[in-house]
Amino acid sequence: MSVAQGSLRLADSSDTLALGAALAPLLRAGDVVTLSGGLGVGKTSLARGVLAALGLAEEAPSPTFAIVQPYAPPEVALPLLHVDLYRLDDPQEVEELGLDEARLDSALLIEWPERAGAGRWRDALALTFAVEPDGARRLTWEAPPAWGARWRPR
Prior knowledge:
Belongs to the TsaE family. The structure is a single chain. The chain has helices at 13-23, 43-53, 99-102, and strands at 4-10, 32-36, 68-71, 80-84, 107-111, 125-131, 137-143. It is an alpha/beta fold and 154 residues long. The protein has a single domain (20-133), classed as Rossmann fold, CATH 3.40.50.300. The longest helix has 11 residues, at 13-23. 35% of the residues are buried. The mean pLDDT is 92.
């Protein structure tokens, strides 16, 4: 099983939003995209770019307190759950969220996936954000075979 890897520089939040917009048409029901990195590095901004490109009229709120923020047509073109696991204390709590069942007809954007325990969502497109010395963001990614030729960021 070959995993494609790479990285790219995101100069500012508009680059992050644009990358989210580029990711949106690639998403399919059943897809999982994990968003890792510290606080304030761009995870929610990328999700907002995805949701705006899928047709969400208003700015998407951070799901930090709701944990799961669902979106469905006609609000967006594809059913999608924006998930923030930051507040979970135990990986077992993920089971209660019903995310595996949601994948049957929705895509998942999951912030703080490491809170779900190692090895979950092995078929996810894994995006990791880090802050560069000049304040820009470095996005590293791992695309498993399930993503085939779909994910080719520039």
